[in-house]
Amino acid sequence: QRAAAADAPVTPGALADGTAIPLLANLGSPAGAAEAVELGAEGVGLFRTEFLFLSHSQAPTVAQQRAAYTQLLEAFPGKKVVVRVLDAGSDKPLPFLNDAHEENPALGLRGLRALRASEDILREQLTALAEADAATSADLWVMAPMVSTVEETEYFVSLAREYGIKTAGVMVEVPSIALLADRVLPHADFASIGTNDLTQYTLAADRLLGSVASFQDPWHPAVLRLIREVGAAGGAAGKPVGICGEAAADPLLAVVLVGLGATSLSMAPTALADVRATLLTHSLEDARRIAEAALAANEAAAARQAAQQAASPHA
Ligand code: PEP
Ligand code: MG
């Protein structure tokens, strides 16, 4: 598969009518960058910085971070690279940021909340990112995870600006921020929807718990409605709305997400080829119609089925 991808030039992500939908990679280490480029990633839509430091008992130094971010940005000259500041807590605990025992860590001091409580660590990370940005030619975007209020959005974006970060945004993975997307987006340069957590928090189903796994389905119309809110707010504000949760790797759901207003999709690099091929078979008008069909269902399985039907050439 890798040899074939190297032989044929990979086209940028687009719909049948030519609408560009950049297809980006989710990465957890700069080591994955070469393969992502080979598989046609047009940049990085989610770089999960916490994976670099999972085994650290102390906060990483600015120099350690600068080296890692520089290596990442150097792999994408001239390309968009969205780096997420540390998402510590819940399924990704970091000893230097999460020390207190919490009964419900997914609802606790996680993501931006944990960073804000240890602001020095956030400031050091922004320092390292700004230094790596200055030393390279990638188009660096920086975003915060687990944002749940407009005030947190303003806090993060203004702090990022202090460090000269030109493009600062928020992840939409908590329903509160999706519902207020029209008030959030004027304060941010972009939003990126994390469908894994957005689904977990919308359906109140722990994403790591097998016994409730059937609820963890991003096809659920309640999740799709929230995504529609964010897509509409992005369209109205003229701000990009990306998707970086696993949902973007499901080719038919990718079409639905575009129909709901997503302007770029980020996924595991191995999923890029299938999503690229499927997008090319639908226009934006088709995607909107398919999304409407999914939204009209009551259940996740029915939404998928309705989308399949609406997407079939005989529909
Ligand atoms: C998400 O929640 O969808 C997401 C992309 O972030 P993570 O999976 O790292 O929590
Ligand atoms: Mg998340």
UniProtKB/TrEMBL annotation:
Its cofactor is Mg(2+). Mg(2+) binds at E173, D197. Keywords: Cytoplasm, Kinase, Magnesium, Metal-binding, Phosphotransferase system, Sugar transport, Transferase, Transport. Its EC number is 2.7.3.9. The keyword Transferase applies. It is an enzyme of class 2 (transferase). It catalyses: L-histidyl-[protein] + phosphoenolpyruvate = N(pros)-phospho-L-histidyl-[protein] + pyruvate. This is Phosphoenolpyruvate-protein phosphotransferase. It comes from Microbacterium limosum. The gene is ptsP. The chain holds residues 239 to 553 of 558 of the full protein.
